[in-house]
Amino acid sequence: MLKELLKPEIREMIAEKAWHSLKEILIEWPEADIADLLKNLDDKEAVVLFMLLPKQLKAETFAELYPDKQEAFLKRMGDEVIRELVVELSPDDRTELLEELPGRITKKLINFLPPEERKETLKLLGYPEDSVGRLMTPDYVAIRPEWTVREALEHIRKFGHDAETVNRVYVIDANWHLLDDISLRKLILADFSNDILSLMDRNFIALSPFDDQEIAVKKIKKYNLYALPVVDSENVLLGIVTVDDVLDVFEEEVTEDVHKAGGVVPLDMSYTAASALVLYKKRIVWLLLLLVAGFLSSAVITRFEGTLLKVVALAAFIPVLIDAGGNIGNQASVLIVRALALGELTTAKWFSVVKKELTIGSLLGLTLGFAIGSWGYIWKGDFRLGLVVGLTIILIAVWANLVGSLLPVFLTKLKKDPAIICGSLLTTLIDITGLLIYFSIAGLLLF
């Protein structure tokens, strides 16, 4: 709110070149708020403000910007400023930046790094895309089991300034094998003369650098931890993954699922940065596929054109029936996809899903069938027509509920993203099958 109130004043100060006053204001703000302000300014003004920031705050703010804004800043800054900025970035933020940028810019930035940082960065970039290795940072505090608590705390005070976090420290042996992790709280409350070994329970959770980033999200959430250690196949400590990086991954995954459910190829940039042409390309693919599926619905109606001509009243109920089927299927798919994402449900439990959803589908169908069947009889004065639409909605409800719940389970079993079945694609599938059910029942009962 403060930054919104001050934005007109800041623009005025930029126009007046009141750099000292601007700097005094900005250095009091958290880096996330500064980044929000910069996102809403044009690139020229934003870079001017960015250059006023102290070195460390500059790096922290840069890490909060969207990739498209970062690239725009890099194009407007001199090589020396870029060199200083890239070196100042934490290893995990630097890796995230480099994997988002075009190859030619990435190569240039890597060459700016000192040999040690360059080696470290290339190592992190060498891990598979979307793996934990791309998220981790080697900036952590390690201690030895034979040290006393006093020695460990002195070590933390000396080296903790460069660490990503000191909320947890990591106990290692002489060969850097991870033995345990200990919370800072536990250290502070322990007797200073105790050795670290006496505080260890060897009950720690670790990640592999080759794990999918979603595993890190789930483990940090499940165990309510601020950071998790990353070890290799021989249990050598390689780095840590912190909750701030995991939250970014979580946000990206949710955004991707929302895009897929809406029938859009997921964006790899912010909406505001995407051009009209990019957004067109992301949307047209699914729209063309759904258009083809729509032709199938038309083909079904054409196939039963004779039935419609004999009982024109059947056409009046088509929108109600297919809408109800699509809604039921989408409700089921959303519940199952979310249960799978949260780990509440596994693919091994598919049969229990069938039993539960058959019951739910039947109850929904009977309720809706009674409602629409009664309305059909009252509206058209034809008991058989009411019976047709009532039976149809019962069968559509059971079918849509099963399809909406089982398809996400089977897609997960095949290691595909179940979110793709939600929304328009599922609705179109149920539309086609719902029409077949409707006209088949009408043919049996009305003629």
Describe the protein in words:
This protein has 21 helices and five strands. The strands form two sheets. The protein has a three-stranded mixed β-sheet. A two-stranded antiparallel ribbon has the order 4-5. The chain is elongated, with a radius of gyration of 30 Å. It has helices at residues 2-15, 19-26, 31-39, 43-50, 55-64, 67-76, 79-88, 91-100, 103-112, 115-125, 132-135, 149-159, 184-189, 213-223, 243-261, 276-303, 305-310, 314-341, 350-380, 383-413, 424-446; strands spanning 142-143, 168-172, 178-183, 227-231, 237-242. The termini are far apart. The chain has three domains: 1-131, Alpha Horseshoe (MgtE N-terminal fold); 140-243, CBS-domain; 275-446, Tetracycline Repressor, domain 2. Helix content is 67%, strand content 5%. The longest helix has 31 residues, at 350-380. It is mainly alpha-helical and 447 residues long.
Secondary structure elements and their pairing?
Blueprint: H1 2-15, H2 19-26, H3 31-39, H4 43-50, H5 55-64, H6 67-76, H7 79-88, H8 91-100, H9 103-112, H10 115-125, H11 132-135, E1 142-143, H12 149-159, E2 168-172, E3 178-183, H13 184-189, H14 213-223, E4 227-231, E5 237-242, H15 243-261, H16 276-303, H17 305-310, H18 314-341, H19 350-380, H20 383-413, H21 424-446
Parallel strand pairs: 1-2
Antiparallel strand pairs: 2-3, 4-5
Helix pairs in contact: 3-5, 4-6, 5-7, 8-10, 14-15, 16-21, 18-20, 18-21, 19-20, 20-21
